[in-house]
Design goal:
elongated, 3 strands
Length: 142
């Protein structure tokens, strides 16, 4: 009777993460310092193993890793400085003439050199006119 009604003793909760998966998580975190816990979980899922991002986060935290590292990301000022050559700002402004006519000016500012390029002035700006000005800016910059 005793053998029939005894159940196998199991630990409550989820089974522990396999040591090979734990080692893989720690290796990926060490070799890729910019990856966060979600990225690591996604890479492991790409290998065919399901691991919850929360599990990855817990393993990284227990091992002393920052779960979502920001230490290697550039600051906003550093980002703008490195990307300034490719950043342009385009804008319209209007000017009232002596005869009270309103003229619209289309200008582009290059962030790297801080130069303002006036591409055109018109009394009636349209989408076709603006589209015509863009190739003229490319020709001027060469």
């Amino acid at each position: 009777m005793k053998r029939r009604w005894t159940y196998p003793k199991r630990r409550p909760g989820r089974p522990p993460t396999r040591p090979t998966i734990r080692a893989l998580i720690l290796r990926l975190a060490a070799e890729n310092p910019t990856w966060g816990y979600r990225r690591i979980a996604g890479e492991i899922a790409g290998l065919g193993r399901k691991v919850s991002p929360a599990t990855v986060w817990a393993i990284l935290k227990k091992a002393g890793f920052d779960p979502a590292p920001r230490r290697s990301d550039p600051t906003w000022a550093q980002f703008l400085k490195t990307q300034a050559e490719g950043i342009l700002a385009a804008d319209f402004f209007h000017v009232e003439t002596a005869l009270l006519a309103r003229l619209y000016c289309f200008a582009v500012v290059e962030h790297a050199t801080r130069r303002v390029h006036v591409l055109g002035v018109t009394a009636n700006p349209t989408a076709a006119w603006v589209a015509q000005q863009a190739p003229q800016f490319d020709a001027r910059s060469e």
